[in-house]
Amino acid sequence: MAKKTAKSELKEDEAEIEEAEEVIEEKPKKLEKPKPEKKKKKEKGIFSCYKVDEKGLTRLRPFCERCGPGYLMADHGNRYTCGHCGFTRYKQNQQ
Q1: Domain count, the chain
Q2: Quick one: pLDDT at residue 73?
Q3: CB 20 within 8 A of CB 13
Q4: pLDDT less than 50: residues of the chain
């Protein structure tokens, strides 16, 4: 049996590392797809509930009848709903 010296073991280890690096580099790169454009976000906050005219401010949504001024109702297409008390008022059909 042949004895291995520290230098020969180091050379073998370095050779194995180089082979491993070559294997890693040979992997094909994935093609990057173009990213789609982001949609513009809707306005949030209390300023989206009012419209500014020459005459002044106009409310786009009504106040809750039960809770009083300060509690705006949410617009759900065919109805208005209060988030505080749960009161619902249906919109009149405009035909």
Answers
A1: 1
A2: 94
A3: no
A4: 1
